[in-house]
Amino acid sequence: MDHHRALRRGFPETVLAEGKTPEQVARILGSLAAQSELVIATRASAEHFAAARADIPDAEYHEQARIIRVGPTPGPVADRPPVAVVTAGTSDIPVAEEAAVTAELAACSVERVWDVGVAGIHRLLEHREQLTRAGVIVVVAGMEGALASVVGGLVDVPVVAVPTSVGYGAAFEGLAALLGMLNSCASGVVVVNIDNGFGAGRFAAMVCRRTAHEDEQ
Amino acid sequence: MDHHRALRRGFPETVLAEGKTPEQVARILGSLAAQSELVIATRASAEHFAAARADIPDAEYHEQARIIRVGPTPGPVADRPPVAVVTAGTSDIPVAEEAAVTAELAACSVERVWDVGVAGIHRLLEHREQLTRAGVIVVVAGMEGALASVVGGLVDVPVVAVPTSVGYGAAFEGLAALLGMLNSCASGVVVVNIDNGFGAGRFAAMVCRRTAHEDEQ
Amino acid sequence: MDHHRALRRGFPETVLAEGKTPEQVARILGSLAAQSELVIATRASAEHFAAARADIPDAEYHEQARIIRVGPTPGPVADRPPVAVVTAGTSDIPVAEEAAVTAELAACSVERVWDVGVAGIHRLLEHREQLTRAGVIVVVAGMEGALASVVGGLVDVPVVAVPTSVGYGAAFEGLAALLGMLNSCASGVVVVNIDNGFGAGRFAAMVCRRTAHEDEQ
Amino acid sequence: MDHHRALRRGFPETVLAEGKTPEQVARILGSLAAQSELVIATRASAEHFAAARADIPDAEYHEQARIIRVGPTPGPVADRPPVAVVTAGTSDIPVAEEAAVTAELAACSVERVWDVGVAGIHRLLEHREQLTRAGVIVVVAGMEGALASVVGGLVDVPVVAVPTSVGYGAAFEGLAALLGMLNSCASGVVVVNIDNGFGAGRFAAMVCRRTAHEDEQ
Amino acid sequence: MDHHRALRRGFPETVLAEGKTPEQVARILGSLAAQSELVIATRASAEHFAAARADIPDAEYHEQARIIRVGPTPGPVADRPPVAVVTAGTSDIPVAEEAAVTAELAACSVERVWDVGVAGIHRLLEHREQLTRAGVIVVVAGMEGALASVVGGLVDVPVVAVPTSVGYGAAFEGLAALLGMLNSCASGVVVVNIDNGFGAGRFAAMVCRRTAHEDEQ
Amino acid sequence: MDHHRALRRGFPETVLAEGKTPEQVARILGSLAAQSELVIATRASAEHFAAARADIPDAEYHEQARIIRVGPTPGPVADRPPVAVVTAGTSDIPVAEEAAVTAELAACSVERVWDVGVAGIHRLLEHREQLTRAGVIVVVAGMEGALASVVGGLVDVPVVAVPTSVGYGAAFEGLAALLGMLNSCASGVVVVNIDNGFGAGRFAAMVCRRTAHEDEQ
Amino acid sequence: MDHHRALRRGFPETVLAEGKTPEQVARILGSLAAQSELVIATRASAEHFAAARADIPDAEYHEQARIIRVGPTPGPVADRPPVAVVTAGTSDIPVAEEAAVTAELAACSVERVWDVGVAGIHRLLEHREQLTRAGVIVVVAGMEGALASVVGGLVDVPVVAVPTSVGYGAAFEGLAALLGMLNSCASGVVVVNIDNGFGAGRFAAMVCRRTAHEDEQ
Amino acid sequence: MDHHRALRRGFPETVLAEGKTPEQVARILGSLAAQSELVIATRASAEHFAAARADIPDAEYHEQARIIRVGPTPGPVADRPPVAVVTAGTSDIPVAEEAAVTAELAACSVERVWDVGVAGIHRLLEHREQLTRAGVIVVVAGMEGALASVVGGLVDVPVVAVPTSVGYGAAFEGLAALLGMLNSCASGVVVVNIDNGFGAGRFAAMVCRRTAHEDEQ
Fold it and tell me: Could you tell me which residues are beta bridge partners of residue D59?
C-alpha cells in the first residue's frame, strides 16, 4: 500500500471491498487502521462489515452507502460551499448515499435532495435556490438520466453526473443513462462510471476542498 | 404496388426516395400520380425533386422536410385536436418538419414549437398551455433526448418521441437519444426509429384521425 | 410523492416495485392508499404482494401481470373503442397481461388475442376483423418481433409494439425484437422499452381516453 | 489459386472484386479464364467491368447483381426444383439479383418474386403455391427482416435468409435484419452475412444440385 | 395450436420447454400426444421431464440433447444421404446432440463426429471421406467457430453452422463464434442462432428429406 | 435564444456550428453580437469562418480549436489557479486547443502541456510540479486514454478527461478511450464526451471561476 | 485426445475444466495421467479438485490459479530469462497466478510483481530494473488496463497484456480493459482474451523456451 | 520527441502519418532524420510521401506497406530465426506488408506466405515445414480470422494474429476477425489491433531480436 499517496491527498485510504472476501477486507482495514486515523472500505456488504467489526470493534457501517468506516468522520470545514447530492428516484439513493458519505468523509457539508426526477419537473424547480448555493452538484439518475441535463441548464454550478444501473431492458445496466449524460445538451456536466457514487463524491470534495484552500491564502 | 392498402388507410401512397435513383423516384411517382390525387416521396434529395419536377410539372418540394408532394395538401379536418411538434434544437428541425408535413398531409393541423431543449427549461414551461391542448405531441431531439421525458412529465398528452442523429462522439448517430427515450421515466412516451419523422407524423395522424372519426359518430 | 400529478392524469398513482424491498413497497402503497381510491405497484413479486397484503387486507394481486392493486378496477367507459392486446407466443403473456391490466385500470375495455405469431400466419388472419375494430393495438412479441410489422400492415389501427426478452442467443435479451420493431416496414408502429407492458398499456389508455374525451364534447 | 478446389465443386472460380483495383480484377479474371470455361467476379463495380472488358472482350456484366461473367451461363439442369428468390422491397433487388444470378451460374432455374414485404401480407399470400414448389427459397429483406419468418411459416421449404443493409437509423447497416432472421420463430430458416447474395445463391445451388445428383443415381 | 401446420411439415409438433413451468410442459405435451403419434419438447430440463413422465408414462428423455420425446423415433428413410454432425470440442456436444436427435426424429440417419476442432487439424482431415458422403453437415463450435470455415473449404457439401456459447471473456456468450461463422471465407456455409441445435437439425432434415423425395420420383 | 441564460453564467453565448450552414452560423453570430460583447461558435470550419467574416469584419478564427470569436478574449482574472491542458499525442492537440481557448474565453489562464503520453512516462514526470500547481487539469487523449489515470494518480488535482477519436480499428472512434477513462483506477477523474474539448474547457472554467469567486469574499 | 500434439509442444496436456462436471474432469485427468508424466486442468473449481483428488491421490491444486496438476512441476531451465508477471491490483492476482503457474509448468522461472497499478506510478518505477531483465512481461490489469501501456513504454521487453473482468459498470466485464490494451500507444504490446491467464503464460513460455533453445545451439 | 526512447529500443523512431498533414509529416521526418540514421513514417499515403520526398531526396516509399523510410534498411542479423508473415487472402497483403517491412527494418529476415486461407486448407499444409522453422509467425486475416487458430494448432511457434478490416456486413470493420482471434482454441496465439501490421511486426522483431541477443552471450 502507498500510504504517502493517501496522506498527500487529504482523503482516507480507501479499500474497494467488492471482489474481496470478508476476511481480506477485515485484514486490510485492520492493517491500515493501525497507521491512520481514518480508513474506509467501499462497496462493502453486510458480510464484509461483520468480519471487519469482529476484528475492529469501532468499525461502523453506512448501510445504504455500503461504506465501512474506521475512525471519526471529520466535521465539515467552515466556509466551503456545500456539495448538493440529487437523485431522480428512490432506487438511486444507495449510489447517492455513497457519494454523500464520501464527500462528508472529505470534510464537506452535504445537502441531500432526493426524488426530483424530470417526470415531475416542478419538484425540481422548488429546489432551484438551494442548488444555486451549492459549490458542486452530484446528480444521480438511472433510466434515461435526463436529470443531469435539466439541472445543468437550471443553475450555474458544476455538475458531476452519476448514471445508475436502475432500470431494465434497453437501460442495459446503466448504459442508457451513461450515454445520455455524456451527450448532455447542458454545458458544465461531467460524468463518472455507472454506479460510481464514490468517484463522484471524491471529485466533488476535491473541487470543494480546493475552493477552501484558496480561501485560506 | 398495393394501391388498395393506401386507399384503405386514408393516407397518400408514399415512396421512400432514399436508396433509389432520381429516375426511379420520378417514374414511380408519375405512375402513382396517374391513379391517385395525392402521392408523396420521403427522404428525397434536391436531385430526386429535379427529376420528379421534369416529369411532373406540379410536383412540389418541402425542402426542409425532404418530401416531394404531387397533389394538394388537404386542409385540416375541423374539430380534431392539433398535433404539436416540438424540437430540442435547431438541428432537429428537418426531422421535425418531416413529421409536421406528414401530419398535415393526413389532414391534421400542426403546431410547431422549435428550440425548447431542456438546457433552458423555462422556454419549454412557457409552452405548457399550448402543449396541453394538443391531441398528441411529437418530440424531436438528438444528443441525450431528455426533452421527451420532460414533456411527458409536464402534460397529460400522448408523446411520440423521435430520436435524431444530431450530436457527435458517444451520441453514436442517435443511439444515445434512442436509448434515453426508450427508458423515459415519464409514462405516456413511445418511440420511433432514429430520424424517423415520417413515422412519428404518420402515427400522430392516425391517433388524431381516429379521435375525429369517433367525434363524427 | 406528487399526488397532483397522479390525479391530473386520471390514472392511479403507480409504484415500481422492482428494486424495492417488500417492506418498502408495502409502506409506500399503504401511504398512497390512505389518500387515493386506487393505487397500484408494478413488476411486483409474490414477496412484494405478501408484505402488502399483510398491511393492506384488500390488496389484490394480478399474478401474471405482476401488479398489486389496492382499490377497485374501474369499469370501462362506454363508447371508447377497445384496446386489443396481441401476443406472438405463450411466453409473451406475462408482459401482455401487464399491458392489459394497466389499460383496464385506466377504464378501457381490453380484448386479448394470444399466440398468433407469424410462423402460423393464418391464425392471425382469422383475427383481422376483431383487430380492425380496436382503438389501438398493443403487440407483444419476443424473438424477432415480426408480429408488429404484420399487424401494422394488416389493419389501419395505431400499433404500440412491446419487444419482450423471450428468446435466447442472438435475441440478446430482447434487443433483436426491439431493433426489429423500430425498423418496422409498416407505418403506424411505435415502440416502448423491452418488457414494458405497463408503458404500452398506459399509452394505449391515453389514446383511448382522449378519444372518449372528445366524444363527450 | 487453387483451381482443383473450383473444379471439385462444380462452380465457376469466383473472384471477390470489392477491395481490389480494376486492374487486379482484370488480370486475375484473364488468368483464370485461360484455364476455365466459366469464371466470375462478384461485388464488381462498373469500373471493374470496364477494365475487365478491355482485356477480355467477351466479358459480360450483370449490372444489378454486380457480377462480371466470362464464359456462358449454363442452362438449368432438368428435373431440379427451382430456387425461388424473394424480396421484401425494391431496394433489396440488387442483393437478390446477386443470389439469383449466382444460382443460375450453378445451373439452377430461378423464380424471382419481388416486393412482397410483410406490410402487405396479401401480396405474399398470392405467391404461396409458387413458393411451395421451390426446392429452396432465398428471402432477401432489410429493415426488420420479418419476411423470412413469414415465408418460413407459410411453406414447408428450406429458407436461406439474407439480411440487407437497406434501412437507416437503428437498422444499423443490416444488424436489425440479421438479428431478426437469426431469431426467426419459424423453423427451417438459416442465415448468411448481411448483403451476401452470393453466399445465399451458392448455398441454394448446392442444395438444388445435390437433389439432382441423387436423382441421377 | 396449429396441428395442420405440424402435419403439413412431416415433423413432430414441438414445444419449447424453456421459459415454461414443468406443469405447463407436461400439460401441453399430454394434450398434443392425444392427437399425434410423436411429439417433442426441446430445451427441457430434468424437472420438465419429471413432470412430463408423471403424466405420460412412455415419455422419454434424450438427456444430453435436452429433448423430451413422446412416441417412437422413426427409423431412417432408406437412400437418403446421412446428416453429419460435427463438433469442435467436448463442451459443444449437448448442442450437437440436440441437432442430431432432431434430425433422427425427422427420419434421417446421423453420423456423429465429435471433437475435431481446428487446433488439431489432422483429426479433422481423417474424417474427410466420411464428411464427403454426407448430404448436409451440421458444424457445432464455440469460441472462434473456425471449424465451419475449414469444413466448408474441405468438402463440397452444404454446411449448417451452429455457434455455441462455449467460451468466456470476449466470446461474449457465442457472439464471437456467430460473427466468425457469418463471415466464413468458405462458400456453402449458412448459420443459425447461438446454441440452436434444434434449428440446425430441423433445417438439415428438410434438405435431407427433399433429396429423398426427389429420389422417389 | 435565451440570452439571460448566457449572461447568468458569465460565459459568452455559444453557437454549435457543426451541422449548420455557413450562412446560418454567420446570421446567428451577427444577431448575437449585436446584443453581447463576446460571442463564439464552436466546431466551426474554415467555410463557417469565411461566411462569418464577410458579415462581421472583426470576427476572428482560432483555427486549431475551430472556434470563431466575435469580441475580445477577456484577460485572465488574477489569483485564479491556472487550468492545465495536457495531451497524449500531437493528434490530440485540436481537441485540446478547443478546451484551452474555451477556458481562456472564460477568463482563466491556461498552461498547455503537449505530447506527454504514457509510452514515455518520463516526459510526463518532468511536468509534475507544474501540474500540481493547476486548479484543474484537462487531459486529452485518444487510443487507450491511459494518460488520464496516470495524471490522476500523480497529482492531487481534479482531472477532466477528454477521450478523442484519435486511433483506428478497435479504438472505435474514441470508444476505447472513453471506456478507459470512465474506468480510471485513479480517483478524482471525471469524463466528457468524445472530442468534447469545449465541454471540458467550460467545466474547468466553472471550477476555476468559483474558486476565484470564493477568494473575493 | 491428440497426445502427439501435446508432446510435440513440450507442454503438459491441458484440460479446460470449466463447463465440465467434476466427474468428467476426474476421468479425463486420470486417463491422461496414465500416459503422461504431467497433466493439468485449468479454470478448475474446488469441486473439480475434490473429484480429481478422490481418483488420483497425488493430484495437487494451485488454488488461486485454479489449476489442478498431476505430476511434478519441472524445475526452470537454466539460462532462460525469467517471465515477469505484473498486476495492477489485488483482484487481478488469480488471473496472474494462472499465468505464472502456467509458465512455471513450462519450465520457466517467474517473477511476480503484484499491485503496481498506474494510480501510484512510483511503485511501478521502483521495479523498472527488475522488469528490464525479464525475457517477456505478462501484464494483468482490469478496469482501464492502462498498466500495459505504461510498462510497454518503460522497458524494451515484449509485453503480453491480459485484460481482466475486474471492475464494474462501464468496465463491461473486461471489455474496457481489452479495448484499452488493443489500442496501446506503446509498441511491443500484444493481447489475449479477457481473464486468459493460461494463454498469456503459455505464450510467454513459448517465447522463453525458444530463446533458451537458441542458446543451446 | 523522446529520442532516447527510440535509441534504447534499437528500432527507428516512428511517426504515425495518418491524421497528420503531408507538411507535418515531412517536417517531422526531416527533423528526426537530422539526428538518426534511420527513421520511418507508417500509415503514410502517396501525398505524405510526395511531401516528404520534396524535402528529403533519399526518402523511399514502401507503397503496399504504406511506410516512408529515410535511411537504409539494415541487413538481417545472422542466426536469428526468420519471421514468417502469412495472409489468408490477397486483400490482407497491405497489412501483412506493413508487418513484414517493419520486421525487416528491425534487422529480421522475413518469409512471406501469401493467400493460404482456411477455405483451401491444403495450400496451408504445404507450408508446414517452412512455418515450423520460423521464430515467430505473424498471421494476417480478415473476415472470420480462422487462419490464426489453424496455424497455431499446426506448428509449435508463437503466433501474433492481426485481424484486418477485410470483409463486409457482419465483419463490422474487423471486429469479427478480432473476436475470433481473441477466442482462438489454439494456445500460443496473441492478438494486436485491427489492421495493426506495424504492431505485429514490431512485436515479432522484439521476440526475434531477444533470441539473437541471448545467442550472443
Answer: D70
Q: Out of D192-196, E120-124, E194-198, which region has the weakest mean confidence (pLDDT)? A: E120-124
User: Which of chain F's residues have a Cβ under 8 Å away from the Cβ of A160?
Assistant: 190
Q: Which chains touch E (3 or more CB pairs under 8 A)?
A: C, D, G, H
CB atoms under 10 Å from CB of C92, counted, come to 29
Is residue D10 pLDDT above 70, yes or no?
no
Chains that touch H (3 or more CB pairs under 8 A): D, E, F, G
Phi, psi for residue C55 in degrees, rounded to 5: -85, -35
Residue-wise pLDDT tens digits, C74-121: 888 877 899 999 999 989 999 999 999 999 999 899 999 999 999 889
* Binary contact (F168, H194; C-beta < 8 A): yes
Q: Which three cell numbers stand for residue E87?
A: 463438433
Q: How far apart are CA A9 and CA A4, in angstroms?
A: 9
Q: How far apart are CA G34 and CA G15, in angstroms?
A: 15
ipTM: 0.92
DSSP conformation class of E80: P
Q: Where does residue E153 rank: exposed (0-12), middle (13-18), buried (19+ CB within 10 A)? A: buried
Report CA-CA distances (Å) from F69 to B199, D86, F61: 40, 57, 6
Kindly list the residues from chain F whose CB atom is less than 8 angstroms away from the CB atom of residue H194: 168-170
The rounded distance, in Å, linking the Cα atoms of C192 and B191 is 6
Mean pLDDT computed over every residue of chain D: 90
Over the stretch G158-169, which tens digit does the pLDDT of each residue have? 999 999 999 999
- Stated as kind and residue range, the H or E segment containing C83 is strand C83-87
- Residue type at H137 in one-letter notation: I
By C-alpha distance, the chain A residue nearest F183 is: A193
Q: Give the span between the Cα atoms of B169 and H152, in whole angstroms.
A: 38
3-state SS class at A85: strand
**E strand or H helix at A62:** strand A59-62
Rounded CA-CA distance E180/F143 in Å is 25
Per-residue model confidence (pLDDT) at position F213: 38
* Beta carbons of H98 and H66 less than 8 angstroms apart: yes
Mutate to test the interface with B, among C187, C189, C198 (most CBs of B within 10 A): C187
d(C-alpha B1, C-alpha B27), whole Å: 13
Nearest to F143 among G169, G171, G183 (CB): G183
* Cα(E27)–Cα(E11) distance, integer angstroms: 20
In three-state form (DSSP H/G/I as H, E/B as E, the rest C), the secondary structure along chain H is CCHHHHHHHCCCEEEECCCCCHHHHHHHHHHHHCCCCCEEEECCCHHHHHHHHHHCCCEEEECCCCEEEECCCCCCCCCCCCEEEEECCHHHHHHHHHHHHHHHHCCCCEEEECCCCHHHHHHHHCCHHHHHCCCEEEEEECCCCCHHHHHHHHCCCCEEEEECCCCCHHHHHHHHHHHHHHCCCCCCEEECCCCCHHHHHHHHHHHHHHHHHHHHC
pLDDT tens digits for C21-76? 899 999 999 999 998 889 999 999 999 999 999 999 999 999 999 999 999 988 88
Residue D60 has pLDDT above 50, yes or no: yes
Chain B residues with CB under 8 Å of A165 CB are none
- Give residue A163's Cα distance to chain centre: 12
Whether H10 shows a pLDDT value over 90: the answer reads no
Listed residue (H63, H9, H71, H10) closest to H40, CA to CA? H71
pLDDT tens, residue by residue, H79-105: 789 999 999 998 999 999 999 999 999
Q: What is the structure's pLDDT at E76?
A: 86
User: Residue B178 is placed in which grid cell?
Assistant: 434512442
3-class SS at A139?
strand
- What is the DSSP track for D116-148? --GGGHHHHHTTHHHHHT-SEEEEEE-TT-THH
Burial E6-32 (b: 16+ CB within 10 A, else e): beebebbbbbbbbbbebebbbebbeeb
